[in-house]
Amino acid sequence: MRSILLTAMMSLSGVACAAAGLDDHFDGSKVDPSKWTTQQVLSRQIEFTKPGRCGNAAIDIVTKDGDDGLECEDDCQRAELRTVKKTWPNFGDEVWFSFSFKITGDVPSKGSARSVIGQWKGPGDSSPMIAQRFDNGVFHITVQDNDVRRVIAKAEGDPDALLSAQNLLGNLEFNEQNVNAIKSLQSLDLISRNAPEVSKQFFSQSLMQSMGPEAKGGDAKALSEALGLHENGDLVSQFRSLSFVAEPEKYIGKADIEIVPEANRPLPDPRKDWVDMIYRVKPGRTDNEYGPRRAAEIDVWANGQKIVSVKGNIGATLKKKDNFPLAGPYFKFGTYRLRIPGTFHFEFDEFSQSATRAGLAQLCATH
């Protein structure tokens, strides 16, 4: 009798009783309403492509020029599917996720700012606690410590240089002067790389050279002082490894997150082929007033290789006064971005969710 009452109370509170298993291979060429909700996507944005990653079909979320976004707060395009509530785990439980995706169509290598292509949200999150992003042609994964963001893996470049740049941004105080300085630094860097002829015509050679790892100390220091980043010449010369991100100001300030990348293992490029992802997610924060009071743990694999391990305070701090139900994180996939011209295809397949890695659906081997 006691167990029946407990189950009923948890159901009424909106909390999942366990990390419910969920598999979807999308071979039926239709969205299964027992697995996915569609309130943030229009029916005309859902297509199916054949063949899929392994089976007959894969779902294809299509975003076109004229598309707007459901539940958008600005000029954005949003087309996402979300797992149904009955499959959400208890917040704090270890959950494993696996899926495959690729990107086709009009895929800009620059200007694609704030492009989220998959996200996990927990109780109290505004920005997702974990997000797959595709800004300026670079696939990367981020986590949040409340309002402070960190890249934990990306598809190109030196992971050690990335961590160094983030650490330097973490030492800055979040204020208007530093925010404007970082935005200006990003603009200068993107112009120097994406429009070199323009930079040669309007900017001095020493200015452009000051923003790379080969920069002379004096040049980097001069630009740093001009931007108001006093005594931060190292940040100026190392920022390039992070300049692809949208909203660089969100990386300013301390974050209690430890990132341990595997040596020389970037994420694959989803524009070239299917990318197979596995995530182990165990939410938590040491400063929670209720819920899991311990550091979170995240591990990420891509195409069968371990990419990164992460530990620390991830997601929003749970305050007793807010009393959010301890359910999630729930997973969403599709497109959520600022408006970009062209037709964008986000193909997704072979989704699996389980309490253990052994419980994930097996994936066909093509890599």
UniProtKB/TrEMBL annotation:
Highest rank taxon of the organism:
Bacteria
Write down the PROSITE patterns for this protein, in alphabetical order.
PROKAR_LIPOPROTEIN
Provide the leader sequence positions: 1-18
Extract the Pfam families matched here.
Polysacc_lyase
Keyword Signal in the entry? The reply is yes
Question: Keywords on this record?
Answer: Signal
Protein name stated in the entry: Uncharacterized protein
Its ancestry begins with:
Bacteria, Pseudomonadati, Pseudomonadota, Alphaproteobacteria, Hyphomicrobiales
